[in-house]
Amino acid sequence: MGNVINKSEPDGPVTIATFWELFDADFVKTMLDLEGIPAILTNECIILLDWRYANATGGIRVNVRGQDAARARRLLSEQPIRPDVAKPAVIDPEYELACPRCGSLEVRYERFSRFAFFLSLLMLGFPILVLRRALKCRTCRHRWKRSRHTY
Q1: Which among 33, 69, 75, 96 has most CB atoms closer than 10 A?
Q2: For 44-84, what is each residue's pLDDT tens digit?
Q3: CA-to-CA distance for 62 and 79, rounded, in angstroms?
Q4: What is the pLDDT of residue 82?
Q5: Within this chain, do residues 72 and 107 fall inside the same structural domain, yes or no?
Q6: Mean pLDDT value across residues 124-140
Q7: Which pLDDT score is estimated for 55?
């Protein structure tokens, strides 16, 4: 999440918030631009090239003019920066795959048997693909065949 910075308003650009992710910084920049406050992002190119520099550069900074800083801080304090995080998504159980044993949604479709693949590669030197067509829960490792009504 970002940090709102309170400093005195000089005539030049003022950093009003810092972020670790470009998505959040760009969201705030767009929100400010829509309110008529011109904003620029600094350090975003450095962090996009190598994210490990984020800590050294202080993150992605959202800068506005000194005269717009108070209004921009007020807008940031009134509105949540990540509205998608504030409200969780609703999962429709009719369309979502869930494990019949534990109810987890961490389910993947296995088309081929990995065991047969690696065993044949080890024993014969080339892989043999054996069809499995099963669903596997990543949480409890339960496997089951999909039925017609699964999808």
Answers
A1: 69
A2: 888 888 877 777 888 889 999 989 988 998 888 887 666 55
A3: 16
A4: 63
A5: no
A6: 84
A7: 78
Cβ(14)–Cβ(30) below 8 Å: no
Q: Of 86, 102, 131, which marks where a domain is finished?
A: 86
Query: In 3-state terms, what secondary structure has residue 86?
Result: helix
Tokens of 124: 């014969």
Same domain assignment for residues 127 and 74: no
How many Cβ atoms sit within 10 Å of the Cβ of residue 148? 5
Domain that holds residue 149: 90-151
> DSSP character for 74?
H
Claim to verify: residue 72 and residue 14 sit in the same structural domain: yes
Look-up of token digits 């520099």: 53
Element (H, E) at 143: strand 143-145
Please report, for residues 20, 46, 82, 140, the alpha-carbon distance to residue 43 in angstroms, rounded to integers and kept in the order given: 10, 5, 21, 43
The tally of domains found in the chain comes to 2
